[in-house]
Amino acid sequence: MSNGAATATAGAQAQLRKKVKAKAGQSGIALFRWLTRNPVWDTFILLCIVINAAILGYDAHFGGVNPYHALIEQWNMYFLWIFTVELALEFLAQGPKRYFRNGWNVFDVLVVGVCYIAVNPAIAALRTLRVIRVFRLVSAVPQMRRVVEALFNAMPGILASFAILAVVFYIGAVMGTTLFHSDAGFRDLGQSLLTLFALSQFDGWGETIARLQSSYSFAWFFVLSFTVIAAFAVLNLFIGVIVEAVQAAPQEELKEDIEEVQGEVEEIAEAQEDAAVVQQRILEEVRALRAELAALRGAPPPAA
Fold first, then answer.
1. Measured between alpha carbons, how far is 214 from 225 in angstroms, rounded to an integer?
2. Alpha-carbon distances of 259 from 251, 262, 263, rounded to whole Å
C-alpha cells in the first residue's frame, strides 16, 4: 500500500513538472527575453539596419567600380548574420507558440530569408533583393509598425473608397468621351481616363479647360464638377479612412496587450490549480500512510 502511494505521488509530481516545463517553453527563456527587451539591444539592431541601408545605397549609387565594393559586400554578410542571430534570440525569448503568433516576427523571417537568396552571386538580378532588408526598419520602430498596422486595418475602407473613385472616373470618362470626342484628350475611353486623372491632380487643369472652352462653351461646368467630386470629395475619403485607422491603432495595440496579459494570467492560474491538485493528492497519500502505520501499531487511525 505504501509503495503504491509513493508511486502515485511521484507520478503526480512528474506530471506537474512536465506541465511547468511546457508552459516555460511557451513563454521562452528568461535570459534571452531580458536581452531582447533591453533598449541597448533595440538601439543596436536599429543602427545596424540604418547603416546597412546606407552602405547599400552607396554601393548602388557608385556601382561595382567603387573602391569600397568588396568591403561593402563583406559587411552585408556581417549584417545578415547579425539579423539572423537576432531572429534566433527572439525565437528563444518568446517560444515557438508566441513567436509565430506575432505577424511581425513572421515578416522578419521572410525578409531575412529573401536576403539569403539575394546573396547568390550566380543570379545578378536577385542581388537587388538585398535592399528588402531595409523593410526591417518598419518592424524595428514601434511608431512605424503602428502606421503600417493602421493601413492594413483601414484596407476595407480604402478599397471601398477606391471602388467609389473608380465608378466616378468611369462615369466621367464615358461622359467626357461622348461630349468631347473630337478633342485629343477625350478621343477614346482610355485617353479620357488619363486626362481625368491628370485633372484630379490639377496637372494641366487650366490648359485643358481653356482648350475645351474654345470648342465647347459648357466644358467648364463638366471639368469643374468632376474636379470637385473626384479631387475634393472622393480622394479625401482615403485620408479620412487612414486618419481614423491611425487614431484607432493605439487602442488596438492596448487591446492586444491586455489579451496577452490575460492569457498569461490564465496560464498562471491553471498552473496553480494543477499544483493545488497535486498537493491535495500528496496530503491524501500521507494520511493513508499514517493510517497504515497506525494499523500496524495497533492504534486507532488518526482523525482526518
1. 18
2. 12, 5, 6
User: Alpha-carbon distance 65 to 81, whole Å?
Assistant: 25
Provide the CB-side half-sphere exposure for 277 (13 A, CA): 13
267: buried, middle or exposed (CB in 10 Å: 19+, 13-18, 0-12)? middle
Q: For the CA atoms of the chain, what is the radius of gyration?
A: 33
CA distance 15 to 9: 10
Of 78, 83, 98, nearest to 33 by C-alpha is: 98
Q: With beta carbons less than 8 A apart as the criterion, state whether 99 and 91 touch.
A: yes
Model pLDDT for residues 213-224, shown as the tens digit of each residue: 888 888 889 988
Unique residue bearing C-alpha cell 539572423:
84
70-114 residue pLDDT tens: 888 889 889 989 999 999 999 998 888 888 888 888 888 888 888
Q: Where are the beta strands (DSSP E) in 8-50?
A: none
Q: Is the dihedral of CA 165, 166, 172, 176 positive or negative?
A: positive
Domains of the chain: 20-140 (1.20.120.350), 158-245 (1.10.287.70)
Provide the grid cell at 14.
512528474
Q: How far apart are CA 71 and CA 177, in angstroms?
A: 58
Coil vs helix vs strand at 217: coil
pLDDT at site 6: 47
Residue whose C-alpha is closest to residue 30's, from 93, 124, 99, 85:
93
